[in-house]
Amino acid sequence: MPPATQIRPTEPAVRQVLEDFDPLAVQKEAAMFYGLFLRGHAPEELRRDILIPKEIFDKWLSHPHYDGAFRENVKRVYSFRRQVLAVFEELVDRERDKARLH
């Protein structure tokens, strides 16, 4: 019987990076919120849902019980959500411009 395959220590980290890497993730997330906008949800409410308030972000970063890995994840999520908001804003602006032309 062949020996069981051993997982090298770097494999879980590499696997996590590959799972996290989706070049369209920002666009997919923004599209979901844009779909809600098209169904009548107020853009102001959707913006609040997308963006993590700066006070919460700062609290997460400064809390003494959160480790470095958690803080790095918070920074990644915060950056991701800001990108989602930028794409969402562009989609909403285009929709409004399109409505003005018709």
* Cα-to-Cα separation, first versus last residue: 72 Å
Proportion of residues in β-strands: under 5%
> Please, how many domains?
1
Unreliable spans:
none
Structure commentary:
This protein is mainly alpha-helical and 102 residues long. It has one domain. It has 5 helices and no strands. α2 (25-38) crosses α5. The longest helix is centred in the last third of the chain and has 34 residues, at 68-101. The N and C termini lie far apart (72 Å).
Describe what is shown at a glance.
The protein is mainly α. Helices cover 75% and strands 0% of the residues. It has one domain.
What are its keywords?
75% helix, 102 residues, mainly alpha
What is the topology?
Layout lengths: L9 H11 L4 H14 L4 H8 L3 H9 L5 H34 L1
